[in-house]
């Protein structure tokens, strides 16, 4: 379970271009469920995800992951959280160009020093499962939009992350691919994972498998639906 | 450098570096292995040097003052000809006079360029 | 394998995959780097080996050489001076030497003509012993070819070649022509009772200074060349010639440093972003730095090994074929010599330190900031 207590985030604090991206947020995110943040652009969804995912620190307030307070912990610990607890699917996917799909998928495991053959097996299995088995040795820049997204999901899951974070995952996908994505997400939830994503796509927050939709406006939570 | 299936890039590169290191080790071994023969050869040359009273290596035979730098006067490099192939750094900063006719050098211009 | 080693290997894999993206550029970098190491290593191996041969010559050279000076130039020295030198306490022997240079108009080469002091080396009158360079300079086609020497057009003197020194001693004997004393005096019109110079043997090398002092009083017009003077001259000569190479290598290293700095410090926006991605997916700053360390180390160590291995083959396999033209200058006779192969651990270490360490540092420094930046920028 993830909970946030009066979390605020200021960018460029104390400077003329100061921006308050989050204002006094109190929130609980249920484990083993799919939670979607919706809201207009600039409402603070991405900022919230980056704080939940230990990518950035809140300016004030506290963040707990599974009962442990992670805000204010040293960088090394946050890195470890990102490596082991969270898997990220970025808005722009951020695969490393010039490397193959397989190499990209294996990247988050590098700092852990696992057995290479076993890791490779695991990565190939995951790619197979996501229908990318044949593309494992292809360079990522040659993948289509849907394939890139699935490669990013495979990378996010390589360390068996309990919590998957996805920022606008379906922004550039057609309806069929969006459905495919939702199926994958449902399967991950059924495996016992927590999925947190943002979207301003009605196809997402109207989907049956979404457990909670949280609406944001101007850095505040303006509504929550189960 | 495209790795074949299962062959890691690091394996290829480590193998190459290992092979190079092995070659360097072989070269060190070669030098050690040659050492006794070279010592004999050098001792033979040393005998020649002693019995002839030689003072210099026969490396620079282009002019007589260059042949035995050990026995030349300190500034003999300039003694023969302003164009002499001398071995003082200062010489590199002194260009030839512009108005020097080719014949003044004592040999023709194409002999110089040769 | 421990997780630590597996992690290091995986980091190396990543850095190689990243390098392989600009394969041409990075291979060119390795090639240029290797060439620079090759030139510096060749110069180091070559001058060390040459220095060793020169040391041997100096070790066996006469302790003191006495030359007669006339108007600042060397002149023949009278036999009567020998007695003045042997009279000095501590002098074991003083011997007049007959030697000189002979410019051979036929081949355009300078020979060193000498009368050996050692009776065992003395050729029979009418014969000569020659260094290996002379048959080459004269283009002798058969083994028993006689040597004709001519001082001016129309004059010709025939000598039978009794012995040719082999190329094992080429570095000291290549241009020598040894003659009997009678032949030498007749051919070069050196009157009896004079010598080129006098070689003095001294019992105790520590007495050289006192002996030179005494000898200067007895022979005020003479010039005294001690083995120390010779060593000093040689040091100057070698350090100036080596200095030339070092200056060239220095220029090359500087050019390379600019090239490397341009490549390394101009951390592209894309590379900075990639580091952000790596950090975002759970790489620690230390992982990023270790990965970059691998990049620098693999390139630099690879280039170092290629350069040194090739330099050894160049210097001791091909006889420093690339340097020969420089040393040769305008010489007609250039000894056909092989140098004793040796690798000096200290030199190798120094070379390693001046090539590998700066390069690795140059790749690491710019990464520092990127590696410690917050990763949340890449969310957008
Ligand atoms: N690094 C930053 N510096 C300054 N302002 C920022 C920065 N990142 C985000 N913001 C601002 O914070 C607000 C929230 O942004 P974001 O979380 O990306 O919203 P959303 O994802 O809902 O579109 C926006 O007004 C945005 O301009
Ligand atoms: Mg956003």
Structural features, described:
The complex is a heterotrimer of chains A (226), B (114) and C (380). With 226 residues, chain A is an alpha/beta fold. Chain A has helices at 45-52, 75-84, 101-106, 116-129, 145-157, 175-190, 202-205; strands at 2-11, 19-29, 34-38, 60-65, 68-69, 86-89, 163-167, 194-198, 212-217, 220-225. The longest helix of chain A is centred in the last third of the chain and has 16 residues, at 175-190. Chain A is globular. Chain B is mainly alpha-helical and 114 residues long. Chain B has 2 domains: 1-54; 64-113, no CATH class. Chain B has helices at residues 9-52, 64-67, 109-113. The two termini of chain B are 47 Å apart. The model of chain B is unreliable at 77-85 (pLDDT under 50). With 380 residues, chain C is α+β, with helices and mostly antiparallel strands. Chain C has 2 domains: 3-57 and 236-379, no CATH class; 62-226, no CATH class. Chain C is built from 13 helices and 12 strands. In chain C, the strands form 2 sheets. In chain C, strands 1, 2, 4, 5, 6, 7, 8, 9, 11 and 12 form a 10-stranded mixed β-sheet that branches. In chain C, strands 3-10 form a two-stranded antiparallel sheet. At the B-C interface, helix 1 and helix 2 of B face helix 1, helix 2, strand 4, strand 5 and helix 5 of C. The structure holds adenosine-5'-diphosphate and magnesium ion. The site of adenosine-5'-diphosphate has 12 residues of chain A, from strand 2 and helix 1.
Largest sheet of chain B: none
Question: Into which percentage range does the β-strand content of chain B fall?
Answer: under 5%
Number of domains of chain B: 2
Order of helices and strands of chain A: EEEHEEHEHHHEHEHEE
Strand content of chain A: 25-35%
């Amino acid at each position: 379970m993830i909970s946030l207590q009066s979390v605020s985030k200021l960018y460029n604090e104390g400077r003329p271009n100061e921006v308050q991206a989050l204002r006094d947020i109190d929130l609980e995110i249920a484990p083993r469920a799919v939670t979607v943040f919706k809201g207009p652009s600039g409402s603070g969804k991405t900022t919230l995800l980056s704080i939940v995912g230990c990518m950035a620190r809140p300016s004030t307030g506290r963040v707990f992951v599974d009962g442990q307070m992670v805000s204010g912990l040293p960088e090394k610990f946050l890195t470890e959280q990102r490596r082991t607890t969270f898997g990220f699917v970025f808005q722009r996917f951020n695969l490393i160009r010039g490397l193959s799909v397989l190499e990209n998928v294996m990247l988050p495991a590098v700092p852990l020093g696992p057995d290479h053959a076993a890791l490779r097996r695991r990565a190939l299995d995951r790619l197979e499962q996501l229908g990318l088995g044949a593309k494992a040795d292809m360079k990522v820049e040659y993948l289509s939009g849907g394939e890139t997204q699935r490669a990013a999901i495979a990378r996010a899951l390589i360390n068996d992350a309990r919590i998957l974070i996805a920022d606008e995952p379906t922004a550039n996908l057609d309806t069929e691919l969006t459905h495919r994505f939702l199926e994958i997400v449902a399967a991950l939830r059924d495996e016992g994972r927590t999925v947190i994503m943002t979207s301003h796509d009605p196809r997402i927050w109207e989907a049956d498998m979404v457990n909670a939709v949280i609406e944001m406006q101007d850095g505040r939570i303006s509504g929550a639906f189960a | 450098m495209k790795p074949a299936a299962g062959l890691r890039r690091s394996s290829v590169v480590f193998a190459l570096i290992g092979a190079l290191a092995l070659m360097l080790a072989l070269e060190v071994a070669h030098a050690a292995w040659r050492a006794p023969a070279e010592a004999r050869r050098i001792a033979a040359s040393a005998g020649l040097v002693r019995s002839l009273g030689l003072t210099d290596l026969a490396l620079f035979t282009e002019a007589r003052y260059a042949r035995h730098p050990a026995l030349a006067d300190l500034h003999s490099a300039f003694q023969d000809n302003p164009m002499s192939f001398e071995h003082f750094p200062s010489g590199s900063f002194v260009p030839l006079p512009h108005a020097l006719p080719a014949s003044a050098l004592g040999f023709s211009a194409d002999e110089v360029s040769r | 394998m421990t997780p630590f080693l597996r992690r290091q290997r995986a980091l190396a894999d990543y850095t190689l995959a990243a390098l392989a993206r600009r394969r041409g550029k990075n291979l060119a970098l390795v090639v240029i780097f290797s060439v620079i190491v090759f030139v510096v290593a060749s110069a180091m191996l070559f001058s060390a080996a040459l220095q060793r041969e020169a040391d041997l010559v100096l070790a066996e050279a006469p302790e003191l050489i006495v030359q007669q000076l006339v108007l600042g130039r060397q002149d023949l020295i009278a036999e009567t001076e020998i007695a003045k030198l042997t009279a000095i306490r501590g002098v074991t022997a003083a011997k007049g030497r007959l030697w000189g240079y002979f410019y051979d108009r036929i081949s355009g080469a300078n020979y060193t003509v000498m009368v050996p002091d050692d009776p065992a080396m003395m050729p029979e009158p009418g014969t000569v012993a020659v260094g290996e360079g002379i048959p080459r300079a004269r283009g002798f086609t058969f083994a028993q070819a006689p040597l004709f020497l001519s001082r001016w057009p129309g004059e010709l003197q025939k000598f039978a070649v009794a012995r040719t020194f082999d190329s094992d001693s080429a570095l000291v004997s290549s241009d020598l022509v040894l003659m009997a004393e009678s032949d030498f005096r007749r051919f070069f019109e050196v009157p009896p009772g004079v010598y080129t110079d006098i070689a003095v043997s001294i019992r105790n090398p520590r007495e050289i200074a006192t002996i030179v002092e005494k000898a200067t009083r007895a022979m005020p017009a003479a010039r005294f060349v001690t083995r120390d003077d010779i060593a000093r001259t040689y040091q100057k000569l070698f350090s100036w010639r080596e200095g030339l190479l070092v200056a060239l290598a220095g220029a090359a290293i500087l050019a390379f440093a600019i090239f490397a700095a341009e490549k390394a410090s101009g951390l592209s926006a894309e590379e900075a972003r990639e580091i952000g991605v790596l950090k975002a997916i759970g790489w620690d700053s230390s992982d990023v730095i270790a990965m970059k360390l691998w990049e620098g180390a693999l390139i630099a160590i690879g280039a170092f090994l290629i350069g040194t291995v090739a330099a050894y083959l160049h210097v001791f396999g091909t006889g420093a074929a690339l340097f020969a033209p420089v040393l040769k200058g305008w010489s007609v006779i250039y000894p056909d010599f092989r140098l004793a192969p040796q690798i000096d651990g200290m030199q190798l270490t120094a070379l390693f330190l001046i090539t590998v360490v700066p390069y690795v540092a140059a790749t690491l420094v710019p990464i520092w900031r990127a590696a410690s930046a917050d990763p949340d920028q890449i969310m957008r």
